[in-house]
Every structure is written in C-alpha cells, then in structure tokens.
C-alpha cells in the first residue's frame, strides 16, 4: 500500500510538473496565428516546385521522380490545410518522403509532427535545430527563449536527422542542399535546389528568416548574434539564386507576384536573394540602433 501510494504521488508529481507536451493536432494560439493560417490556394512556382502553405506561412512541395519533399509545416492547425493543398494539386500526401525544416519556431515547425504522422516521412534539419525540434521546446541559445516558460513550444518531432552545412538531402532526381544561415535561430537552414522546365533550369533558394526578433532583454549586438546575421545575409546574397522563397511568403512578395502571373513567371528574379539580404541588413541596423539607445 505504501509503495502504491508513493508511486501514485510520484506519478502526480511527474504529470503535474513536467514540461507540457503538445499533441500533434493541438492548435497553437497567437496574435497573428489566425491571419497566418488563412487558407491559400496552392500554385506552381516553377517546374518541380509548388507552394502548398497557408496565406502567411510557407510550405513548399518539391516533386521528384521518386516521391515528394516538403519544406516547413506551419502551425499544427496548418497541417490539414497543407494536406488538402497537396491533394488539390493531384499529388498523394503519403508520397512525401522527406520533410525539411528552415528553423525550429512554432510557426514553421508546429505542423511537422502532424505531417510526419500523416506521411511517415523522414524529417531533416541542421545540427543546431535538432534539440528544439525533438523536444518541441526552445533552447536557451534561441533569441526568443524565455526562461522557465512554455513560450514558443510546439508538438515535438521524433526521429529527426541532422544535415551538415553544405550536405544534401537527395530524393529521386532532386538534391536539396543545406546552407547554414544562423542568427534568427542558431539552427537556421537555407535550402537550395534546381528546378527545370521548358529547357530552362533555375536555382531555387528557400532562404531562412533573417529577422532580429527576440524575447525581452536579448541583445543581438552584445551576444554576437548580429555578426551571425550579417554573415548569413552575405551567404544568402552570394548564392546562385533565380527564385527566392522564404518561410513567411510576405518576404518573397507572394501576393504581389500572384497578381502578376500574366507577365511570364514573376517568381524568377536573379536579384531577389541580394535584395533580401540587403533588406535584412537594414532591419538589423535599426534593431542595433534601438539596442544602443536603451
Ligand atoms: Zn522564427
């Protein structure tokens, strides 16, 4: 009896005090979540590359000759919309063999557990993102980490495979290269691959976020993270880049480009990565000014 009581108390303690673990389908609430998760019709960006995300959170589908690849999964409540978008294009979601992640924040990684369950796909991200993605909890070195808090938590993902800087995830005839671009998070990865159609081949770059956004008190300047962002902006600006895509579609001008589809392919722009990098350096300068004046 005493032993039973002790184990019951132990169970209650573990259940009550352990970190909250979110179920794959448990929706996440945030100020912008409903706006981000508004439905978006899927569309072809170019050749093997399709947009299957929501209005404010990108999810990119890559078609190979041996299955599909998905990059980013939005919020947990985005997974059903992404699944429906993939099927609307005529693909079978169960053919997704690999899910790649840009960076482990709830608005891009939150839907991955549900999408993994739906597809059985392997999940890949950079070495520094594995602990966050596997636990669903921000690590201390993330600028948005808040001590002793569930802030930023999302459903954890099992069986995450780390991809090194410059290494490839190869599925069928498409190889997708991981390019480390830390700063927004320590584990930020930019992914790049080739898309060919009508005898023209383009370099597609899914450039990770370069925004200096943090929890209160974090200093991009004093922590050295600003230097990482400057280096990462340089890396993205130097990539072979004909088509830029980003985790938030606002940053590649999705709505504006969809409105100009009758003018050829508005997504093709070999200056887009350079302009994105320059924009990021401008925002960072503003952030550092405000850190210096506080
Ligand atoms: Zn983020």
Describe this structure in words.
The chain has 294 residues and is α/β, with parallel strands linked by helices. The chain has ten helices and twelve strands. It has a seven-stranded mixed sheet. Strands 8-9-10-11-12 form a five-stranded mixed sheet. A hairpin with a 2-residue loop joins strand 10 and strand 11. Helix 8 runs antiparallel to helix 10. It is globular. The protein starts with a helix and ends with a helix. The structure holds zinc ion. Zinc ion binds next to loops. The site of zinc ion (ZN) has 4 residues, from loops.
Helix content: 25-40%
> Pairing-aware structural class of the strands and helices?
alpha/beta
**Which strand order do you get reading across the main beta sheet?**
1-2-3-4-5-6-7
What bound compounds does this protein have? zinc ion
Mean pLDDT comes to 92
- Our count of helices gives 10
Radius of gyration: 20 Å
Report the count of strand segments. 12
Low-confidence runs (pLDDT<50, min 5 residues)? Answer: 1-18
- Elements, N to C (H/E): HHEEEEHEHHEHEEEEEHHEHH
């Amino acid at each position: 009896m005493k032993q039973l009581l002790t184990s019951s108390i132990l169970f209650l303690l573990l259940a009550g005090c352990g970190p909250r673990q979110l179920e794959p389908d448990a929706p996440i609430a945030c100020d912008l979540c409903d706006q981000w998760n508004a439905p978006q019709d899927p569309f072809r960006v170019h050749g093997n590359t399709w947009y299957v995300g929501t209005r404010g959170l990108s999810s990119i589908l890559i078609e190979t000759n041996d299955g599909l690849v998905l990059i980013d999964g939005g919020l947990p409540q985005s997974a059903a919309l992404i699944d429906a978008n993939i099927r609307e294009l005529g693909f079978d979601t169960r053919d997704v063999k690999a899910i790649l992640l840009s960076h482990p924040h709830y608005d891009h990684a939150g839907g991955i557990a549900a999408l993994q369950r739906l597809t059985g796909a392997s999940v890949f991200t950079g070495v520094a993102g594995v602990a966050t993605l596997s636990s669903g909890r921000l690590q201390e070195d993330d600028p948005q980490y808040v001590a002793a808090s569930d802030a930023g938590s999302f459903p954890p993902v099992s069986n995450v495979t780390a991809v090194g800087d410059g290494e490839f995830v190869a599925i069928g005839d498409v190889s997708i290269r991981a390019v480390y671009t830390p700063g927004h998070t320590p584990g930020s990865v930019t992914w790049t691959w080739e898309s060919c159609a009508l005898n023209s081949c383009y370099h597609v770059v899914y450039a990770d976020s370069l925004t200096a956004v943090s929890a209160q008190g974090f200093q991009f300047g004093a922590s050295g993270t600003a230097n990482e962002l400057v280096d990462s902006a340089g890396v993205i600006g130097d990539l072979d880049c004909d088509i830029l895509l980003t985790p938030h579609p606002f940053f590649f001008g999705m709505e504006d480009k969809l409105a100009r589809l009758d003018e050829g392919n508005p997504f093709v722009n070999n200056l887009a990565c350079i302009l994105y990098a320059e924009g990021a350096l401008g925002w960072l300068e503003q952030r550092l000014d405000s850190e210096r004046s506080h």
